[in-house]
Amino acid sequence: MLKKPKPSVRKAFKRERQLQELQAAVYQEVDLRDPIEYNGHDICGLAKRGMLKSKFKVTQLKKMCFLFGVEIEGPAGRKDLYVKPFENLVQTCSCFKE
Length: 98
Known about the structure:
Blueprint: H1 7-30, E1 37-38, E2 41-42, H2 43-48, H3 52-55, H4 58-68, H5 79-90, H6 94-97
Antiparallel strand pairs: 1-2
C-alpha cells in the first residue's frame, strides 16, 4: 500500500507545478518566433539537430540563457545545465509547433 506524501513534499510538488505553469504562460506570452537567432546562428535549427552542445562554449551558452531569460540550476561549468533548459525554451518556438 502506498503512503500519502508528506505535506512538505506535496507543497514542493505543487510549487514546482505552479512554476512550470508560469514558465509556460510566459513563453506563450513572449511567443518566440522562428527562427530564434543568436549571433547569426539559427538556434532552432541547431536545437532540432541536437547541436547546441557541440556548437557553443559554456560562456556562450551562459550568455544565451541570460539573454533569453532561461534560469539555470546547478554547477555553472557544465554545458548540459545550459543546453537542456535552452532546448526546452526553443521547443516553444512556432517552428516546433508545426
